[in-house]
């Protein structure tokens, strides 16, 4: 599962 | 959100405001690489396509809109309003040498093979090298207006601050890291080291930014 990469950074 | 990330984002915000201030007050975009600014627009547009699909927070949304809009406005100022003050003959870095390899890297390294994710990876790789035309220009002219160096310092500080942010997140978010963003971010920060050296030893001591011949 790669859901850790939510891209919440700018 | 942690203090490093917040300061990093504010530093990024500040860098753009400094650049706008420089262009407006001197009524000139002398010393600024149009190519670097055009690459930043490409970076922001390809990375922030998710504003249509993913809601993170009002903070996140507002910053994304600001980065896209302000950088487009800078391109407009350089290409239209203050066009005569921009000298393309010293802004000669070949951006295709950056775009090609970044596209290839994005096809090789991404988290999912979807248009949005590959473009996201592309934007991360491209951001890491987007400053090169600007640094190349600086190297060619050998000097810079003080305000331009403040712009670069704020931009470099933004990247540098993302590193402690990742370290903090690694320890507070159960060992999570984003290998693509971290690798590209380290490369990007490293590109500023030479600049920082001159900035700290000269500009902050009140001297002009001049590179040794």
Summed up:
The complex is a heterodimer of chains A (10) and B (213). With 10 residues, chain A is mostly loops. Chain A is rod-shaped.
Tell me which oligomeric state these chains represent. heterodimer
Overall 3D shape of chain A: rod-shaped
Bulk shape of chain B:
globular
The chain-level structural class of chain A is little secondary structure
Helix content of chain A: under 10%
Instruction: Tell me the domain tally of chain B.
Output: 1
Mean pLDDT across all residues of chain A, rounded?
68
Measured by DSSP, the beta-strand proportion of chain A falls in under 5%
Cα separation of the termini of chain B = 43 Å
Largest interface: A-B, 8 and 19 residues
Termini distance of chain A? 22 Å
Low-pLDDT parts of chain B are none
What does this protein look like?
The complex is a heterodimer of chains A (10) and B (213). Chain A has 10 residues and is low in regular secondary structure. Chain A is 0% helix and 0% strand. The radius of gyration of chain A is 7 Å and the shape is rod-shaped. Chain B is globular. Chain B has a two-stranded antiparallel sheet. In chain B, 70% of the residues lie in helices and 2% in strands. Chain B has helices spanning 3-26, 34-47, 58-81, 96-108, 115-129, 132-141, 146-172, 179-191, 193-201, and strands at residues 143-144, 209-210. Chain B starts with a helix and ends with a strand. Chain B has one domain (3-210). Chain B contains nine helices and two strands, in the order ααααααβαααβ. The longest helix of chain B has 27 residues, at 146-172. With 213 residues, chain B is an all-alpha fold. Chain A binds chain B through residues 2, 4-10, and chain B through 5, 9, 12, 47, 50, 54, 56, 60, 63-64, 67, 111-112, 120, 162, 165, 176, 178, 181.
């Amino acid at each position: 599962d790669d859901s850790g990469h939510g891209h919440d950074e700018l | 959100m942690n203090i490093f990330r917040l300061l990093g984002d504010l530093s990024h915000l500040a860098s753009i405001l400094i650049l706008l201030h420089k262009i407006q007050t001197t009524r000139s975009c002398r010393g600024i690489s149009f190519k670097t600014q055009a690459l930043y627009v490409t970076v922001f547009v390809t990375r922030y396509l998710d504003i249509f699909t993913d809601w993170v927070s009002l903070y996140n949304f507002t910053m994304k809109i600001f980065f896209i809009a302000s950088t487009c406005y800078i391109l407009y100022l350089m290409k239209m309003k203050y066009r005569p003050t921009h000298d393309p003959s010293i802004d000669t870095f070949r951006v295709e040498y950056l775009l090609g390899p970044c596209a290839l890297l994005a096809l090789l390294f991404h988290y999912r093979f979807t248009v949005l994710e590959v473009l996201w990876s592309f934007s991360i790789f491209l951001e890491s090298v987007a400053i090169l035309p600007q640094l190349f220009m600086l190297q060619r002219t050998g000097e810079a207006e003080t305000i331009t160096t403040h712009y670069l310092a704020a931009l470099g500080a933004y990247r540098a601050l993302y590193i402690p942010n990742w370290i903090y997140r690694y320890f507070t978010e159960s060992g999570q890291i984003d290998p693509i963003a971290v690798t590209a971010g380290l490369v990007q920060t490293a590109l500023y080291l030479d600049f920082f050296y001159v900035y700290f030893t000269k500009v902050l001591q009140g001297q002009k930014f001049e590179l040794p011949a």
